[in-house]
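Justification of computing resources. Each target in the renewal requires a structure prediction run like the one illustrated here; the chain below, 676 residues long, is used simply to show the kind of job we budget for.
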Amino acid sequence: MTFASPLFLYGLFALFVPIIIHLFDLQKPKKVFFSNVNILKSVNQQTVSTRKLKNILILLMRLLFVLFIVLAFAQPFIKTGNEKNTSSVISVFVDNSLSMNSSNGSSTPLNESLLQLEKMASSLQLNTKYYFLDNNFQSKDNFQLSKDRFKDRLTETKPTSTVRNFEDIYKKINLTKGLTSENERNTMLLFSDFQKSTIGNLLKTNFDSTQKIILIPMQNSDVSNVFIDTIWVENLFNTENTKNTLHFVIKNSGKKKINPNIKFFIDEAQNANTSISLEANEKKEILFDFITKDRNAKKCKLKIENDVIAFDNEYFFMLNASPLIRILSIGRENNTYINSVYQSEKIFQYQENKLGSLSAKDLGKSNLCIVNGFDKLNQSEQNQLLEFAEKGGNLVFFPTNNINQTDLENVLKKFKIENNLLITNSLAIENKTNLQFPDTKNPLFESVFEKIDKSTTMPYVFPVFKAENKNTVLLSTANELPFLTKKTISKGNIYLFSVPIETQYSNFFIHSIFVPTMYKIAFLSNNSSQKMAYVAGEKNIKLPFVLPNNDQKIKITSNKFSYIPEQILQADGLVFKMPNLSVDAGYYGIKWNDSTLTTIAINPSKAESVLEFYSKNELSSIFENNKNIEIIDNEANVTIGDYMKNQSQGIALWKYFVILALVSLLAETLLIRYLK
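Resulting structure tokens:
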């Protein structure tokens, strides 16, 4: 047994005090009168014998009381064999992600972790040094901390939307081992809820077998959460006085039934709301119809209201301003079907030219060029259109009804479209076939159909040529012949139809699928679109702004900070990285040269919303072959402070001596009262 404060052992001299009191009984004798003195001798013998035994026992209890109190103050402990004559360094990682901030009604795992660490620092020796790290990986945490500075750093730890996987955490915190001198013992402490969706593959990490690692699972198993899983709108852009529909999928990741209320806001004004019921692990798709009065970008938000929701109860997104999509149509004659699609919408700037009179100026400012009769293009027009596609423009090709195989082959070869052609150019009934249902996962048809009704009759087709090609097939016939294909050339795309725009060859042009197909081709031709929302921690964000290559840099701004990110100017846009720091959900302005280019919306990672955690038993099973990794069961009321103190000082015994002192005091009281 060893003493942490041996100077208190000088208090053992206090043992002489009860001995002195015992030897010099200062009580005055009292006279007792008896009527008969014959029995006095026997009574005296019995009384002296009992009193001596009683006094000796009382003296013993008093001596033991003083002894135990002195030993308790000297803080005795038993060495466990792990102690060395070295100072210790403790490297601490605290998971301060949003899931660690979910409340169980009284506290949060994050607050409990910080409280345990504060108590640990108070109980350990003054010469203990610390390293601290959280999910933000800040440069200020690369330095060793004293006890007082470590406590201050704990108070600075706040929840963040940034998440880290276990491998990155270990690599980062393991760097502190290299900063530890040879005469220092380094121990790693990892406080986390070990969320399965964010912690990554635990078996992937290569551990240093000489490094002591302690995992402390901090979890609220009863916490439920409802979150927005997916969101989209039928019309990606904000069009004026036009009905649009917002689709979103809401999910309950908890184990209890929840009845949340969902509100939809546009520019801070509530537009719609609804109440739903979600069973455990259930998800539902909800629709909100809305109309906006102008084409400007809109700041939108979905808000979930319910008492049991832990976090991420707001989802921010932008309804992008409607871009002006410039469409050039060239052909032998004007086509009413194409005209009716694009001329009625303000979002499209539509222009028509004749074949043979293609203007390089008109083509250069267009996003999409529709060629009605592409097999009749002359050599100059072919060169211009090929250059247009290579620079990022999109083309739509319709053949003529009197197609020539040589002309067709030459044009397709020019545009690098490989085909094994078989021209039919026939309206014979045996050539008639229907189209198959499109793949709704393809970007061209995504969000076009609410659902596919197999009873719906698809358009019929009389293909003027049959082609077996290596291009992407977007629509095909019942006998597996391509009807609409896509070929990517450099930065642009070519959409190739196998029929002319005439109803005798297909009723596709008067079918309900025609307009949304042509709309989506036009929308996908505009490179100025940006995502409705981005995820916190997203490495690369690309915006469709072509800026001068000069010293002016873009800034990300909000009410809380202004930041100049790492950025790359490309020919077709701007790419930048989000800052490696805590980013709250909300709206962020992108500024350049003191002017706002656009506003983006940022939300936490959906992985944070799925509240599934590794239990202590699961962690023990995963790391059963790693003898240097120990897992502390927080639910068993084992604090990291007690554990680390036992590791650094052995098994503390002072509590037991305090108990023995109290027992001695109680025994003395009983002897005085009951021993007659």
